[in-house]
Protein 1
Amino acid sequence: MKKLLFLFFILFSSQTIMYSQSATELLVLDNYLIKNNKRGVKVGKFNIPAGEKISLIKDEANLFVLSEDGHLLIKKNATITKSTPWRFEITVKTKDGEKTFELVRDNFIRNKVIAHRGAWKNHDASQNSLKSLKKAIEIGCEGSEFDVWLSSDNKVILSHDPEIGGKKVEETTADELFKIELKDGDKLPSLEEYIKCIKEQNKTRLVLEVKASQKGKERCEAVADSAVRIVHRMNAQAWTDYITFSFDAAKRIRELDPTAKILYLEADKTLEELKAERMSGIDYHYGNFIKDTDLAKKAKSIGLLTNAWTVNKTEDMQTMLNQDIDYITTDEPEILLEILDAKK
């Protein structure tokens, strides 16, 4: 009996430790973007507890200095210009170990245009494909939105719908899903492939939607957990924002990454509730902004970002622009880009 109790204690303790580790926030910076022609300025701050030590142990570009309280700064005698490299890798060390980060010169586009599942509609490309992502970059979108689930064997899968290629994503292994053929010879891409593609440039960002799993809260959290950890493992924080219809997933992302940009898609919370849970903003169907023409203004007044989806008609795009919505998600990014060009 004592042996059984001992085994139970060990098993329970290990499960508790595992859960505690998975719930711990990741080491993050509150900013990964570097402005041009700035000397001696603060880049960002690491989220270390007061009194904890952090040290800069690798900086091949020899551009940065780290203060004792976790502020990362550009050296006073260093200048980052358009002619210098645009990606900078550093490694820091804390009591928990070492972690590498990539900092990016800020040439990112800010034109409000978010290509919904990539720029696919007018380019004979599949939604959420590498081709649709590359087209969104090529035409000059601020961001390219895409969707992720977990396969039956817990691998991150890109798909808007719960089914793709006649297979239920959450009931199918990743190996089977990655064999699915898309348009124009494309294959279903992995999240790693998507991130690798976006990191080849510093103008368009990713908007990663964590899908609300049909298997409940824990599965929603697991999708969020897996996606965020891949983003961090590949040092893609500078390129990646998050959206989701699952409030559980949104809270899990915030728990893991205290500085990530997270916009909530479901209009079932008050603006004050979202602010209290440290959400970055709202990402609502454009009909909500048409119904309440002061919604964007109210959100911005308490520091929330605003995004409207999925805005495909010219008149609705114009309405969203008139309300000064921060981002506009559309299947027709080319039309929105034309409208914006005409306003210049």
Protein 2
Amino acid sequence: MRSWALLWLLGLWWGSRPSEGKPPPEPPAHGERVRHGTPLSSVPHDDAHGFQYDHEAFLGAEEARTFDQLSPEESRARLGRIVDRIDAAGDGDGVVSSAELQAWIRHTQQRHVRESVDRAWGDYDTDGDGRVAWGEFRNATYGYYPGEEFGDVADAASYRKLLARDERRFRVADEDGDMVATREEFTAFLHPEDFPRMRDIIIAETLEDLDKNGDGFVQVDEYIADMYSPEPGAQEPEPEWVRTERTQFRDFRDLDGDGHLNAQEVGHWVLPPDYDQPYVEANHLLHESDSNKDGQLSKQEVLDNWSMFVGSQATNYGEDLTRKHDEL
């Protein structure tokens, strides 16, 4: 996930000429402050009503849809190849351990992140050297302003602030400090919530967005103002949901009860300590499929539980397949 300002810039103004004024960015919706890990599936995990969650967790949502178009025979064959790949990426001992299964699910979980970076890469790596220098990103996003003066842009101060903010994040993502990002470093810049080392910069950016009085904390009114702004002069009482948020702030956000949020409390709010989804799902699949209870899965055990791992609806299979899936 990009910084909210940069998302807004790219979403509305990508391709605009630098000489065309860009309006100031809008703050994000309140709910967008919270950054969970990438979900394994968009559907509830309820095996009593089907295995769609498990399919998407194991394959990824796009590949799960593709498998729904395969015949059961082809689906099983491709599952077998996946099992071989999972084992080969681990110790290659002929069985799949919980750790190997977790690694595969994490790989699947992050596929959409990698693909989004791949799609954007050419826009930023303008010299084609396989890396993105800060200057390349700056020029592609903000234009070629001498000294970043933004003299012909409305609210130039906001854009200087945005530029400085993105440069700071780029520096944190750039582990070797050369201001030239590898693909992994650039992924950390674009999707900081997926990288533990980017935690502090996410917290700092959130504090800067909300801390209007500059005291280094988020007061309850600053917290509320991020999601609710009554019309000037309005006399009506706050909506019930706003009063509920004030209670949430007091009872759940302000952990030490001192009346405001410090950096640690902001981090606990916007980067909640989620449970380890790949760990939970890997052990669920292992528990349900490990017929001899040896704590690992043979290829046959996985194939015997084909319906849980990849199951196919086998409707119109083959008709919609337009690309190879050997990368599985």
